Amino acid sequence: MRIRPSSGRWSRLAGAAALSLFAGTFTAVDLGTAPDRAPTQASVRTPSGRTGTGAWVGTWASVPTTVPAGNVTSYEDRTIRQVVHASIGGDAVRVRLSNEFGERPLVIGRVRLARHAAGAPSQEIVAGTDRPVTFGGRTSVTVPAGAPVLSDPVGLSLPAGTDLSVSLYLPERTPVTTVHNYAQQLNVVAPGDVTRDRVAGGGSTIDRWCFLGSVDVRTDRRDAATVLALGDSITDGANTTRGSNHRWPDLLAERFRSRAGTSRFGVINEAITGNRLLHDPNPPAGSAAEGYADFFGESALRRFDRDVTAQTGVGYVIVLLGINDIGQPGGAAPASEQVGADEVIGAHRQLVARAHARGLRIFGATLTPFKDDTLGFHTPRREADRQAVNRWIRTSGEYDAVIDFEAAVRDPRQPDRLLTEYDSGDHLHPNDAGMLAMAGAIPLDLFR
């Protein structure tokens, strides 16, 4: 089913518009508020002194990965100012930091939040919106190796669809070992503790999020819920315009906000470029992928508990995974890890079973076409596997619903290819217009 919204930005742009580039269980260390698996009630005193109660939901997230050996950067006496995009708004915020891939405790001297003005440089915050973040009442925190930490609630009004700036000060020499690479967002590393400064000047830019796992907001809707996108580089926004928040999950959140009946849904993006269902990164020695494959993250089956069921307020999951399992050539994965349709379908069945065991509704998205891709994914055999997986997704009835991304972006005259207007140029990743078409193909009446 393909949806073309009938008004506003969507009607103007949707028609214009898997590493996929090569896209455990997480033990929570909780200082303040316990991690949620469903909307929970919490009380926090806002700056005005009002104490309120509402549902906590996820408004933004990224998947932590390790950093390849030899590619680790260390910072000392530096502030990392990072910009994230809120899918749903609220009157209080809490932040989850992650040291999951650290081999030693992570010392964070100070964390502050502020609104970031749309269109402003990444180092600037909106005057008057700066707030301190505490962990168990303290402004500094030491995160154990291999663990996350959740902040206390912060009284900050964060409107839906706006940007939030998260400033972390690292006083000691700190190897940055837990990141989300390919963020499609420029962030800033500035000298000294400039967490309170309106402009974090004198720094350099990076295209990754460091030690930052997720952001929750407290809404006034007790029926609020989080929609979670589980995917690879197509969902991660590869080849979209940097800083535009033009990934299809961002655009789905925009659709939710545009309709009163769905404005209660937040959307978080738990995708990793290069990610696979069945295997962790394991490129052959000497291959082109060897130096950066760790950024591709743990397999979806391994990371499901951490990245899906441990996230705040999740009620729905959308899965777009399998292209990397089918398509990664020998240069990115050893021959022993090349899999076909049966193995990919078996992994999807596991995701469905594990989601249902947690009471979640889970929707399967068809795999988008990639004939003539520039990365060497496509062969006749792999195309047959892709079609077999899509046939199962559409007809098996095992997913709670089907989202037909393939139909949304394929060329109707050559259905094994992306439509030219939706092609970023590598014949694998959709461009900004393709992302609009994908978001527009999701029936909003699936979310109740």
Show the helix and strand layout.
Layout: H1 8-13, E1 29-30, E2 41-45, E3 51-61, E4 74-75, E5 78-85, E6 92-98, E7 106-108, E8 110-116, E9 131-132, E10 141-143, E11 148-150, E12 163-170, E13 174-175, E14 179-181, E15 187-191, E16 204-206, E17 208-210, E18 212-219, E19 225-231, H2 233-236, H3 248-257, E20 265-271, H4 300-309, E21 314-320, H5 323-327, H6 341-357, E22 361-365, H7 380-395, E23 401-403, H8 405-409, E24 410-411, E25 414-418, H9 432-440
Parallel strand pairs: 1-11, 19-20, 19-21, 21-22, 22-23
Antiparallel strand pairs: 2-3, 3-18, 4-13, 5-12, 5-15, 6-11, 6-18, 7-10, 8-9, 8-12, 14-17, 15-16, 24-25
Task: Please describe what this structure looks like.
The protein has helices at residues 8-13, 233-236, 248-257, 300-309, 323-327, 341-357, 380-395, 405-409, 432-440; strands at 29-30, 41-45, 51-61, 74-75, 78-85, 92-98, 106-108, 110-116, 131-132, 141-143, 148-150, 163-170, 174-175, 179-181, 187-191, 204-206, 208-210, 212-219, 225-231, 265-271, 314-320, 361-365, 401-403, 410-411, 414-418. The model is unreliable at 1-51 (pLDDT under 50). It has a six-stranded mixed beta sheet with strand order 1-11-6-18-3-2, with no helix packed on it. A six-stranded antiparallel beta sheet has the order 9-8-12-5-15-16, with no helix packed on it. It is α+β, with helices and mostly antiparallel strands and 448 residues long. The protein is globular, with a radius of gyration of 21 Å. 18% of the residues lie in helices and 27% in strands. The protein has nine helices and 25 strands. It has two domains: 8-21 and 218-446, 3-Layer(aba) Sandwich (Rossmann fold), CATH 3.40.50.1110; 71-215.
